[in-house]
Amino acid sequence: MHQNRALAANCCIVKQKMKIVDIRATTVTVPLHAPLRHANGCHWGRFVRTIVEVEADNGLIGLGEMGGGGESAEAVFRAMKGYLVGHDPARTEEMRFLIANPTASLYNNRTQVLAALEFACLDLLGQAWNVPVCDILGGRLRDRVPFAAYCFFRYPHPRTGEGEVRTIEQLIVEARELKLRYGFSSHKLKGGVFPPEYELEAYRALAHSLPGDRFRFDPNGAFSTEQAIRFGQAIEGLRNDYLEDPVYGLNGMRRTREMVRVPLATNTVVVNFEQLSANVLNTAVDVILLDTTFWGGIRACIRAAGVCETFQLGVAVHSSGELGVQLATMLHLGAVLPNLTYAADAHYHHLTDDIIEGGLMSYTDGCIDVPSGPGLGVKLDRNKVAQYSELYKRLGGYPYDQDPGRPGWTPLVPNDRWADPRDGRCGEIPY
Ligand SMILES: [Mg+2]
Q1: CATH second-level architecture of 135-380?
Q2: I need a surface site. Which of 159, 216, 233, 301 has the fewest CB within 10 A?
Q3: What is the CATH number assigned to the segment(s) 19-131?
Q4: Which of 43, 318, 332, 347 is catalytic?
């Protein structure tokens, strides 16, 4: 009897085994409320994302998503078919070595490609096993993930002329509006655009305009170490979550950390296990911002969070710009991290639409529910994918590291070629 039951269970497992039969990729571009300015350029009023579909021999389709700095990544996913057709999507660890072996990958840098394929394989497994992805990854510790407002300096929308955030007054109005609409209690200001003195004034004003809330500032490593120290010391009295990448490089961060009594965070200089181990051995950063794309998948982020838990470093969830598929990966990650003590970042509230069924996921009290359906718990809305794929074909990509308002501009690291906050021009943005 027992033997029969065991045999039956085995049959079930054999039945559920899958093979990848196809990989498809579609580039879409989805509009933002307004172009977002950052230290290296601008998101030109839209995100360009490559949506990946991995089909298994039982007809299930797993979803992945990748960014790429305003460019399409379709071609690389087509090339992955040669590696992965016939592969069992449950063998995710073998897939890591198959397409992103750490020494072979020096030639093709496929970490982000691996991430999108891992999302899709986990989505397949969750659907086949009828469980949400977070249940494969240790099980949920929370049903919803808190997010921070992501405040950017913005150019006006190229069509409507609305949405500009350049003056400090505009920034405060925007932050209050975001809090009112979504319920955020933590707020991030993306800096590195205007001179540090101006951004310090803006950050202070932001912190004073929303008393009781928490704040984080991120100039994308654009400051010199000395500027980072001056800025960090000047904000010590505010309710800071952390100061994110004020300077580029572990040594600059370490020198800043010695002089500033605000936790330092990074999503740029600790983005792999070599860098994480260097930071453990000689600490330069307090909070590691885990990005499901930059680290090569949700599972790599969980491993990194485990190292951080062991060495008592903080973790948070980083956003590299996302539509609903990638947001789902961030939600499943956020659900399973025991040491998630900060609100996650997301660009998501800047989007005007999404390509998943049901449209944009909604915020409640600054939080988004972890999807409860099988796999990632999101499905493509085929009409939306077609609509935004057409828009991509019409508009093409955009240079994420160029500023449409400053032709010929090349930012340095550390930078001193700041934009002028009195300059209201925004250049030509095709739309
Ligand atoms: Mg950052």
Answers
A1: Alpha-Beta Barrel (3.20)
A2: 159
A3: 3.30.390.10
A4: 318
